[in-house]
Amino acid sequence: AALNYLQVRAAGNDSESNAGERLERMRINLASSGPIAGALQKCLDMVKDVSIETQRKLVPELDSALRKGAGFNTRAAVADAVASLCSTCPAAFQCKTGSTMSNPTVRLFRALYFASERERGALAKDKMIHSLGSLAELTPGKAVRTLSVNACDRYNESSGSNNDENVRRAAAATCRAIAVRAPSHLIDGGPGDVWVRKVLPTAYIGMHDKETKIASLWKEVWEEGGSAISSVDGRDNVFGVLLQEKLLPSITRAIAKSLQSTSWDNRRKGCDVLLELCKDNVLAPTARSSDGTFCDNDKDRLKQRAEASASLLSECVAVVSKRRIWDGKGDVAKAGTTIAGKWASIAPIDGETAFILDITWPVVLCTDRADDLFEGDTWFQTADAIIEEEEVDVSSSMMASTRDETKDLGEIDNDLDEEVQESGVSNESVLNERASHKPVVFGGLCRTLLNQSINSGGSSTEGVIPYKAACLSGLSMLMNSVAPSQDSRTCGSAVAHERHIYNAMAPSLYAFASSSQSSGKSTPPLLVARAIECLGSAMYEGLGSDPKPDQVWSDAVLLLKFLADIGGAKQAAWTVRQMATDASSSLVSKMPPVILKRNSVITTCLSISSQGLRDKKFWKVRLSSLNLVLSLLDRVGNQKMSTVDPDRQLIMESILPYKENIMDLARRSLADNESQVTATASKITLAMSWWP
User: CA-based angle 374:378:381, to the nearest 5?
Assistant: First the structure.
């Protein structure tokens, strides 16, 4: 008792020096070197020489000692005894009573897991996990699968307000011990295929746990389990070489459950997995041939990716569209826009079936569904009537599914119902039916992100500004993903869709950015910069050809002057100056030639560039200023292009009087300390080398 008191106090007073763990190791070494431990070891050495009936009688006694042992030395000794007997007397654990709780081996197997979950000492916990892995090889497959599913559920439940690191670590260590020390069980997943549908998807998400030790345990489960399953994989719906794509349907269901969880930590892990899948191009269309069509051999693979992307995008949009802002919601917005951007670049416009007729795309591009978020739902017509969603009490909802910690080990053993014990997986995790998800309307998603970033909440609450900035960044990336190609036969439809999106987004973005110039309102510069970035991303080819009265965003000349004013010398925030210059570059590349060749437009562009190049502190501002000049020169092109195209020739003649000024700006930038600035300046001098 005195040593136990010292260990608890040492662990609580100085957790970083591992004083409690060192004292625990000393206690175990002291106990294992005593006369009782020596006598016990001699008895274990004699077990292999007795009859098999006598050996089997030891299993219930070990189970009873583990459950009733008051000291951790007793539990550690039981774990050592089990590990020793598994190697010397494996027949002692082979019972013909099946995988039910009447089997002593199953009871001992489950008792080791729950004892390791409750054990405070790291060394004793490791001993129990080690013996559990050794015993798993001799335990019936149904019992191993049942415990693995139970461990995964316990891991998912022990986060958020019910955060319990010990439970999460015990669950991860248990699955790792089974995967490493009993890999033969991974070949048979049972009727529910629990390794593919439950354990490995949980391991893939668990690899993103905030605790490094737990994440490393799940990584071993993913690697060892994935190797074992891939070696015997004979399923028909397996595509690709990455394990993530082979298990994509199961991983999709696991991510969807994480995003639906009341635990924000689970949601963040789900977002991290989503972003990783997008980075690996698992949630992206397959490669196309040179004529823009998909290969017939990749049709099923493309269909699986589209279904998974549609399901996860729907979950992300459902979370983002809610008004409640919480820490990490910006990651959901980033994940959703990343998926949508991957598919929007090839999505059919206005119902065109350009590639494959029987595939439901995750996102569709429409100009006639201004009030739809999901196709046909008229969501924005009733958006104003939606009441703030009721937040579920995390503790109450999670406590319903979390086992009472006051139960003893025998009561916990019988918690799983008969159906779970029979199949090894719960009903919810074996659902095979394919959820039908309506595609997300591109314009509706853009409108939702805009409303979340501009019209939702105040800017004083902690976490609101980063979330709004994430929504605006996602909106900018999303609009940049749809870039019409001049050689494509759908170029006209793509430009018309860009015009539709710009007309829907520009009024609110312009009003938000211009309001920052009023003296009576304080708008965070970060949000102003992101709004200007979105305005530049939304611009379409031919902007300003049909200006409307009192609509500055529809007049290219007035819009350029607005960008020059908001990013001028009086602007203190360098991010706003940079984004205003970048938006000016986008406007210059999109406005009609008849407007660009005006003297007032050219002088405004050079004024913006000269002003930005005076900023000696922020090189990104100087780089944006040179990019504006380069965009102006790109409208002229090379010598051959300007000879063939009369509009390019007229633009060159309009810029020609300012050639010396432009060359002077480029020469001065060649001595800049930043390599990207000097590289852009070199491009400018090269572009004008053939000019008269």
Answer: 135
Residues 589-599 have pLDDT tens digits of 999 999 999 99
- Specify the amino acid at residue 636: V
Pairing of strands 440-441, 363-364: parallel
* Half-sphere CA count of 603, side-chain side, radius 13 A: 4
Taking only the tens place, the pLDDT of each residue in 487-507 is 666 677 888 889 999 999 999
Q: What separation in angstroms does the CA of 603 have from each of 496, 542, 633, 677?
A: 30, 20, 14, 22
Kindly provide the residue ranges of all beta strands, DSSP E only, lying in 58-119, ordered along the sequence: none
Mean pLDDT for the stretch of residues 635-663: 90
State the residue for tokens 């989503």: 274
Highest mean pLDDT among 30-39, 347-356, 668-677: 668-677
State how far the alpha carbon of 525 is from the alpha carbons of 262, 395, 450, 512, 578, in Å.
33, 38, 17, 11, 12
> Are the C-beta atoms of 190 and 199 separated by less than 8 Å?
no
3-state secondary structure of 365: strand
Helices 299-320 and 442-450: angle between axes, nearest 10 degrees: 30
> To which H or E segment does residue 335 belong?
helix 329-344
State the Cα–Cα distance between residues 575 and 618, nearest whole angstrom: 9
Give the separation between CA 671 and CA 355, rounded to whole angstroms: 50
Report the predicted TM-score, pTM, of the whole model to 2 decimal places: 0.82
Instruction: Give the list of residues 6+ apart from residue 55 with CB closer than 8 angstroms, or none.
Output: 47, 48, 85, 89, 91, 92
With the C-alpha atoms ordered 188, 194, 195, 199, is the resulting torsion angle positive or negative? negative
75-79, 192-196, 378-382, 384-388: the lowest-pLDDT one: 384-388
Q: What is the pLDDT of residue 11?
A: 55
Give 434's contacts (C-beta < 8 A, 6+ positions apart). Answer: 307
- Given a contact cutoff of 8 angstroms between Cβ atoms, the answer to whether 338 and 277 are in contact is no
Give SS3 for 294.
strand
In terms of pLDDT, which residue wins out, 401 or 349?
349
Query: Six-digit token pair at 398?
Result: 């999670």
Report the distance separating Cα 575 and Cα 529, nearest Å: 6
DSSP 214-272: HHHHHHHHHHHHHHHHHHT---SS--SSSHHHHTHHHHHHHHHHHHHSS-HHHHHHHHH
Q: Output the six-digit token pair for 155.
A: 């891991």
* Mean pLDDT of the residues in the chain: 82
Instruction: Tell me which residue of 629, 633, 625, 523 sits closest to 580, measured CA to CA.
Output: 625
Q: Which amino acid is at 243?
A: L
d(CA 366, CA 351): 8
Query: For 288, which DSSP code?
Result: B
Higher-confidence residue of 395 and 21: namely 21
What is the rounded CA–CA span in Å between residue 78 and residue 85? 10
As a whole number of angstroms, the distance between CA 174 and CA 212 comes to 17
10 vs 337, more confident? 337
User: Strand, coil or helix: what is 658?
Assistant: helix
Provide the token pair at 654.
Answer: 């309009």
Q: Which of 178, 184, 181, 182 is nearest to 202 (CA)?
A: 178
CA distances from 79 to 66, 74, 463, 609, 632 (A): 8, 9, 47, 73, 75
Residue-wise pLDDT tens digits, 73-92: 778 888 888 888 888 888 88
Nearest to 409 by CA among 111, 116, 113: 111
**Are residues 665 and 690 in contact, defined by beta-carbon separation less than 8 angstroms?**
no
**Given a cut of 90, is residue 391 above it in pLDDT?**
no
Range from 399-403, 506-510, 618-622 carrying the lowest mean pLDDT: 399-403
Which 8-state DSSP code applies to residue 287?
P
Three-state secondary structure call for residue 617: coil
Residue 29: HSE in the Cβ half-sphere, 13 Å Cα cutoff: 6
Q: Which helix (H) or strand (E) holds 364?
A: strand 363-364
Whole-angstrom distance, CA of residue 491 vs CA of residue 471: 28
Rounded (10°) angle between helices 659-669 and 675-687: 150
